[in-house]
Design brief:
The chain is built from 13 helices and 18 strands. By secondary structure, it is α/β, with parallel strands linked by helices. It has two domains: 198 residues, Medium-chain alcohol dehydrogenases, catalytic domain (Quinone Oxidoreductase, Chain A, domain 1, Alpha-Beta Complex), CATH 3.90.180.10; 126 residues, NAD(P)-binding Rossmann-like Domain (Rossmann fold), CATH 3.40.50.720. The strands form four sheets. Strands 3, 5, 6, 9, 10, 17 and 18 form a seven-stranded mixed sheet that branches. Strands 13-12-11-14-15-16 form a six-stranded parallel sheet, with helices on both faces. It has a three-stranded antiparallel sheet with strand order 2-1-4, with no helix packed on it. Helix 9 links the parallel strand 14 and strand 15. Helix 5 crosses helix 6 and helix 5 packs across helix 11. The longest helix is centred in the middle third of the chain and has 14 residues. Bound molecules: zinc ion (2 copies). One zinc ion binds next to helix 3.
């Protein structure tokens, strides 16, 4: 069967290859993959950034893909409660279940966490066997292309509902207009935010337009003063902010845009130190929270949320390509000429 793999530990080197059919082991579910998204992590794997090469140490060729959905087609001998033929979302994180952090329920901090598509083989393939605990059945009518966004939606749900929860009526600032930023917009709306401001840069014009269409106040920070734009919506400042840009230059303006006592969630991964002055933070009792991926139970919330926002999720999928066009998929991602790029084995 076909799969998309990183074939060598060097930049580029992502190809369609032929791999063996998986065995469905005890406790596993065999998934026939319907759709899989690409994200910034995949781009970093393609570039073979130093931090990726150090943290994710796969054997080669290594099958990519941590954002995928598919149909359950076979169950391991002891698996119950999962219907065969059902579209399912897959939590790509395998946690040890025994360490201090797993016992706290904070699975993202597991000391032995392994991620499909990063440490172990991923879901950009025709079929994959995964632990039954990682499988979340979806309603029967679910569109696989919308469902391909459930993994990054779960990241947003973790930040907006669990790490830095907002209250109904809050004004929310989201830094970054990429897929993760817009998923924060959708979850914040679902959680009752009064207004959500999405901040991007000039190169994000198409993304900001989509944010606006989805109900955000969209701000191009290169054309407009962000602080003034936020104060027009919320004179005291935003109640909550999330950085989904992963750019170190975003943190100071995000903090400045918060009201006194406001909270900032760090979702994007900055690769350089972020400069900010701590005095206003101390005087205004603002708070900063790290947000890493999600916990296992976050999937229970995100799969329910996804069912209610399928049309919006589908709008975030701007490109659907066959495996043979993986090179073009990465080019789109690299040049930010897309929102979410989804690869399908069948198209
Ligand atoms: Zn991802
Ligand atoms: Zn653990």
């Amino acid at each position: 069967m076909r799969a998309l793999a990183k074939t060598r530990p060097q930049p580029g080197s992502i190809e369609e290859i032929v791999v063996a059919e998986p065995e469905t082991g005890v406790g596993q579910v065999l998934i026939e993959v319907a759709a899989g998204g690409l994200c910034g992590t995949d781009l970093a794997i393609r570039r073979w950034d130093d931090d990726i090469a150090a943290e994710y140490a796969p054997d080669f060729p290594h099958v990519l893909g941590h954002e995928f959905v598919g149909r359950s087609v076979a169950l391991g001998s002891d698996v119950e409660g999962i219907e065969v033929g059902r579209l399912v979302a897959v939590n790509p994180h395998i946690n040890c279940g025994r360490c201090y952090y797993c016992n706290l329920g904070r699975h993202a901090l597991c000391l032995e966490r392994r991620i499909m598509g990063c440490h172990i083989a991923g879901g950009l393939t025709e079929r994959i066997a995964v632990p039954a605990d990682n499988v979340f059945p979806l309603p029967g009518h679910t569109d696989p292309l919308a469902a391909a966004l459930i993994e990054p939606l779960t990241v947003a749900a973790h930040a907006v509902l669990e790490r830095v929860p907002l209250a109904a009526g809050d004004t929310v600032l989201v830094m970054g207009a990429g897929p993760v930023g817009l998923l924060h917009l959708l979850v914040a709306q679902a959680a009752g935010a009064a207004e959500v401001i999405v901040a991007g840069v000039a190169a994000d014009a198409a993304r900001l337009e989509l944010a606006q269409k989805l109900g955000a106040v969209a701000v191009d920070q290169q054309a407009e003063d962000l602080q003034a734009a936020v104060r027009r919506v919320a004179p005291r400042g935003a109640d909550v902010a999330y950085d989904a840009s992963g750019h170190e230059a975003a943190l100071e303006p995000a903090l400045a845009a918060l009201r006194r006592g406001g909270r900032l969630g760090l979702v994007g991964y900055c690769h350089a130190p972020a400069p900010f002055h701590s005095l206003p933070l101390a005087l205004d009792e603002k708070e900063i929270f790290g947000c890493r991926a999600y916990y296992r139970d976050t999937w229970l919330r995100s799969t329910t949320l996804a069912a209610g926002m399928a049309a919006e999720l589908r709008q975030l999928v701007t490109h659907v390509l066959p495996y043979a066009e993986v090179g073009q998929a990465f080019e789109l991602l690299d040049r930010r000429q897309c929102m979410k790029v989804v690869l399908c084995p069948e198209t």
